[in-house]
Known about the structure:
Oligomer: heterodimer
Low-confidence stretches of chain B: none
Radius of gyration of chain A: 13 Å
Order of helices and strands of chain A: EEEEEEEEEEE
Shape of chain B: globular
Strand content of chain A: over 45%
Amino acid sequence: DQQVKQNSxxxxxxxxxxxxxxxxxxxxxxxYFLWYKKYPAEGPTFLISIxxxxxxxxDGRFTVFLNKSAKHLSLHIVPSxxxxxxxxxxxxxGGSNYKLTFGKGTLLTVNP
Amino acid sequence: EAGVVQSPRYKxxxxxxxxxxxxxxxxGHNTLYWYLQNLGQxxxxxxxxxxxxxxxxxxxxxxxxxxxxxxxxxxxxxIQPAxxxxxxxxxxxxxLGQGQNQETQYFGPGTRLLVL
Lengths: 112, 116
């Protein structure tokens, strides 16, 4: 039973346009959500997070939106740059459980 | 500030051989995690340490896997004997506090294991 789902294995975007990566979750106990970026042969790098008490968090070109009623979050990257090309993982934790539950990732390709 | 350090970065062994991975967390981080990442999947937790205590090892296959975190800093993850299905990336992560659910975990580069 996959509690965190990233239904798009890949996404291709033109440089300068917006990239939108989506994530759905099923566990209503989750109250903290994170996005990690991963380049080949490297570990995941923390990108941005959001607590369930908020519905938006912004950091430079990266914005995460949380829709608790729909159990859905999204990561917006504006403007997209070729260096953003990587695998993006959505992760969640909550309740008394510190554990991060990850999605399978979405490969973002930003074309020059 | 140095990040999470892991070694070796790559390891190739024959099945039934033992293997060990080492991790040094970010300075001052009390909580350390070992994750397993299979190809095309997200990381999955194997074990979590708070200081030197393993507070959750429920996902660790204890028949062949073991881990230790002596002195509450560095940690070692061992597999003995290794099986073909153990081929994966082993990631170490650390976080500042006591594993509170709203803490950010920072990952090392991982050790890529290939069992032949």
